[in-house]
Amino acid sequence: MACRLNNIFNLLVTLLLLFTISSCKQAKVEYYSEVEKKSFFSRLLEDSIYYNVYRPHTKHPIDGYDLLYLLHGHGGNHDDWFEYEEGRVQPILDSLIKNQMIPPVVAVSLDAANSWNVNRHIPMESVYFDEFIPHIDSSLQDFLNKEKSVIAGNSAGGYGALRFVLKDPDHFSFGILLSPAAYEPVPPGISSSRKIDVFAKDSIFNDSIWNSFSYTNIPINAPEEIAHLLISTGIDDEYEIITVIDSLKLHLDKNNIDYNVTLVPGGHEWNVWREIFALDVTRAFEIRK
Fold it and tell me: What pTM, to 2 d.p., does this model score?
């Protein structure tokens, strides 16, 4: 089920902004925001976890700032979304906010290591829901809008974002899945998920362990409450994400969950994800109006 967008002009302006952002030199970027590097102590992990907080230099909205969660991919950390050579999210959000394409938002990214945001050797899913989200709600309570948040993830982060919006619809109104590595039934040999202990038994990838975390096993009791999903990939993605999206569409249709799919030229890379992310963030807040 593809969503209908009410304001095509806004999207065209967004694409113009994206061209400007992708063409500029890092030294010439003027920021209208700040990014703070923070940490909190996780009782579940018995260790400190690092995260970043993006805040725009805007007057505090009457209803508070909207909140955007960012999940990183395999081999990454909380800095990926903010690195200029990778996510470049600070100038993207600055441009969208400054040009009134989206409302002022606070964005946060947590270092989830190579956990793929599941409860396996480390209980990262529980850390996220039981510790990180409450920590953000508490520490930023004077700044935030109390409505549901938007969550975005690339690759393994897209896998995590999909599972999060299905498992806890109370928290998220939109899920932005950039080349989500949510393979069904099992990932191809090229996938990084086959090279880590998270989905392995005796150091060998295990189909049953992978399947136990499949989005198809998450009960859908109230599809109307599930976050609207904005799903995308590059058509030249070498990690076979096109097949992921084909399987995911069948599952979403079966469960009457709203979604929109965007296919663009390019592979499994930030050059693709940056542009789609900015477009999808604009879409999400356009539809929320």
Answer: 0.92
